Amino acid sequence: MKVIKVVQIAKESHPSPLFTGPVTMQTIVGTELSKKFSIMQVNFGRGVRNKFHSHTLEQILIVTEGKGAVATEKEQITVGSGDVIFIPAGEKHWHGAANGATFSHLYVMSPDSKTTQLED
Predict the structure, then answer these.
(1) What whole-number distance in Å separates Cα of residue 11 and Cα of residue 8?
(2) What is the pLDDT of residues 56-70, one digit of tens each?
(3) CA-to-CA distance for 66 and 55, rounded, in angstroms?
């Protein structure tokens, strides 16, 4: 067994064209611990979100802090600490901080999943 304390994991800047502004990431469980899934915490700056994208395999988001939104082409839902979101493989979606708010979530995915950005 291994206990991981998220507050002790360094937040690393993660510049990427997938995001509309600054985010940091914390690797909670990477391939050094599991070949079946990875867990990352993504910390969004105020009002920052990712752009429409999809994954080849399912994704689970667990909101850990702040106020955010998760959206598909059909709906947008406000989410907060403790909410768990299941995103099916191939679903076009985005997620991030609500206007004026910061937001953090854990994501759980297979390390074999591929992400395709669908918005410029």
Answers:
(1) 9
(2) 999 999 999 999 999
(3) 24
Half-sphere CA count of 76, side-chain side, radius 13 A: 9
- Written as six digits, the tokens of 89 are 């493989």
Residue showing tokens 């990477």:
30
Burial annotation 50-61 (CB, 10 A radius, 16+ → b, else e): bebbbbeeebeb
Q: How far apart are CA 61 and CA 59, in angstroms?
A: 7
Tell the CATH topology of 41-110: Jelly Rolls (2.60.120)
* pTM of the full structure: 0.95
DSSP per residue, 61-89: EEEEEEEEEEEESS-EEEEETT-EEEE-T
CA-based Rg of the chain, rounded to a whole angstrom?
Answer: 14
